[in-house]
Amino acid sequence: RKEVEQDPGPFNVPEGATVAFNCTYSNSASQSFFWYRQDCRKEPKLLMSVYSSGNEDGRFTAQLNRASQYISLLIRDSKLSDSATYLCVVNEMTDKLIFGTGTRLQVFP
Amino acid sequence: EAQVTQNPRYLITVTGKKLTVTCSQNMNHEYMSWYRQDPGLGLRQIYYSMNVEVTDKGDVPEGYKVSRKEKRNFPLILESPSPNQTSLYFCASRRLSNEQFFGPGTRLTVL
Fold first, then answer.
1. Which of B50, B100, B106, B107 best probes binding to A when mutated, by most A CB atoms within 10 angstroms?
2. Cis peptide before B104 (omega within 30 of 0)
3. Cβ atoms B69, B49 nearer than 8 A
4. pLDDT below 70 — which residues of chain A?
């Protein structure tokens, strides 16, 4: 079983739609969680951290479910500029970052 | 501007010809890493360094070397490149338990 698993997609959604991605992780001792965004052929950049109580940043909402070992990212009112690959990242007890293979999102007009 | 820089950005070389990819960060970060990214496999860590003169193997270290003589620099060395090392390489830096910053990537092709 992979340490961090994501549905690769692609998710094709129209502008204005709400879309959600899930990610599961295998190590129950994992300490912190992140979503990174990667545009085609560019470097990944931090989108948001994921906190136990859930957190929101504008149109983006992240949730953590430790019992079921998954995290989620919800994007509301999708924009064309949201088209990218979203990487789920888990920080283990050793402070090693484990990256998922990413979920590709394509927003169309 | 806070950043991680890598050079070269693109490189085409031949099997067996030693090469070095440089990486430098200006944020005084302790932790630096090298990753390779391949389709369907995601980002895999090659080597990492928790501080000057402290380096350790990541998940896919075979065929690579690194050094950390100064805090800001973390070069990746391929002593004898092979075609299976054709990939997109990213250098990254961070403070422990904090946001990781990536360089712009180096696209390497080994013929």
1. B100
2. no
3. no
4. 1, 93-94
Question: Tokens 């490149």 map to which residue?
Answer: B81
Express as a percent the part of chain A with pLDDT over 90: 78
* CB A104, CB A9: distance < 8 Å: yes
Which amino acid, one-letter code, is at A38? Q
Percent of chain A with pLDDT over 70: 97
**Predicted pLDDT at A1:** 66
**Integer Cα distance of A24 and B40 in angstroms:** 17
Cβ separation B97–A95 shorter than 8 A: yes
Q: Position A81: which residue type?
A: S
Contact, A102 vs B42, CB < 8 A? yes
> Do B89 and B108 contact (CB within 8 A), yes or no?
yes
Q: How far is A78 from chain B (nearest CA, A)?
A: 25
